[in-house]
Amino acid sequence: MRDLFYADATVRQLAAMLVQLVADNPVIEASAFRDRVGLGRKRSIQILEFFDRIGLTRRLGDQRRLRADNALAQRTEG
Q1: Residue 53, SS3?
Q2: What is the pLDDT of residues 37-48, one digit of tens each?
Q3: How far apart, in whole angstroms, are the C-alpha atoms of residue 40 and residue 38?
Q4: Confidence of residue 68 (pLDDT cuts 50, 70, 90)
Q5: What is the distance between the alpha carbons of residues 65 and 10, in angstroms, rounded to a whole number?
Q6: Domains and CATH numbers, the chain
Q7: For residue 62, what are the CA distances in angstroms to 13, 37, 46, 72?
Q8: Pick from 64, 38, 4, 31: which is nearest to 14 by CA?
Q9: Residues 78, 72: Cα–Cα separation, whole Å
C-alpha cells in the first residue's frame, strides 16, 4: 500500500477478517471483503492487492484465494 500506512496490528486484524471470510467460502470476492472490513471499494482493493504482493492471497481473475502456506495466514488461524 504505497500511499497508505497501517500499523502491524491493523494489518493482522485485516488479515484475520480475510481468513474468517474464507471459512465461509474459499473464493474471496472484493465486495465481500469490502463489506466485512467496512471500507470503501478503492481502499479494500488496495488492501487486497497488498495481500497479493505479500503472498497472503492469490488473485485469479476478479477473485482471490487464501494461500495457506503464508505465515500471516497461519498466525491468524490459530
Answers
A1: helix
A2: 999 999 999 999
A3: 7
A4: confident
A5: 21
A6: 8-66 (1.10.10.10)
A7: 23, 18, 14, 22
A8: 38
A9: 10
